[in-house]
Each structure stands twice: as structure tokens, then as C-alpha cells.
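We emphasize that the prediction below concerns an isolated chain of 188 residues; any contacts that depend on oligomerization or on bound cofactors are therefore not represented. The input was used exactly as deposited, without trimming of termini.
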Amino acid sequence: MKEDAVEVLNETFRNMETEAIKNFEKEKITKESITLKRFGSFRYLGQDHSVEIPLRNENYNQSSIGEIISDFHNQYEKEFTYRLDSQVDMIQFHLVVFAKIEKPKLQKRRKTGINIEKTVKEQRKVDFDEQGIHDSKIYDFNILEPDMEFSGPAIVEDPSTTVVIFPGQKCKVDDYANLHITFTNGDK
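Result of the prediction step, given as a C-alpha cell string:
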């Protein structure tokens, strides 16, 4: 590793950590709940394969560089059964960030008593491949309510996904808006 390695290591990890902490703080996660783990990928000069080793979270100095190189030699020898007396290059900085957060509180979907027919956006012909073309109701996921049930053939549309309910299947909405699909004819 070159003489300016200490400065490059310290500055690069400091910048990465500052950016990571800012990103977590934007999500209302405090610095105190964050754990940072540093890693580096190293290789011998001129080689293609590298070894990733954990690095201490510290302000590095020349002594630290010597320890890092020693750790690299040991890990390299473990993985490849030999070591070289050659220049060591750091080729990648890797920062892993963990945060301890509270479990999210899932909210139950509100029940207004709307009739299931009011959740139908339209009816159209849908090709169910081997089961053929069927007239199918197209449901709006965003207004389905807990305990609503309907049978396929049907489609449930949401901006982020489309759920297909095949002929012979039944769908029930639970309290958290999960769709439980079962077979009505005993098939699995």
C-alpha cells in the first residue's frame, strides 16, 4: 500500500460514514442506534482475485496499515494456501450499516361496510392460458375491505402489483389487506 494510504483510508471511510448517517437520520433513525462495520478488499499487485477483510472502526495510522496488511496476508493464505512477498493493493471500500429500530406497528385496514360490487372497476375477458378465456371481474385492491370474499376468475389491481385469481380459486381479504387465495375444487 502506498504512503498516502492512511489519509485515503481515513477520509474515504469518514465520508462514507457521514453519508450513511445522514441517510439514516432522514429516516428518523438516530446516530446512537447505528452500527458501522468497515471492510476492505485487497489483492496482491497484478492479481485478479481479491480477499475481503474486516477493518477496525478507528482513525488509521501507519501502524494500522501494517496490521491491515498482516491480516490480508493471513486471510489470503487461508483462502489460497499461499502468500506472496508482493505489494498489496486495496481495491474496494465496503461499509455495512445496521440500525436497531422498533418493530413497525401494522395497521388493520378499516372496514366501512361497502358492498363488494362497489370494489369492481370493470369486467372484461381475460385469457387464463390452459383454462381458457373467461369474463372476469377486475377488483380495485385499494377499496377491498377485511372479510370480503370472491371467486375466480378475477383480477385484483393495485398500482404496484396485479393478483390473478384463477377459475376454481377463492380469495378472502384479511384484516391487514393480505389476500388469501385457496382452491374451491379441492385441488392444490
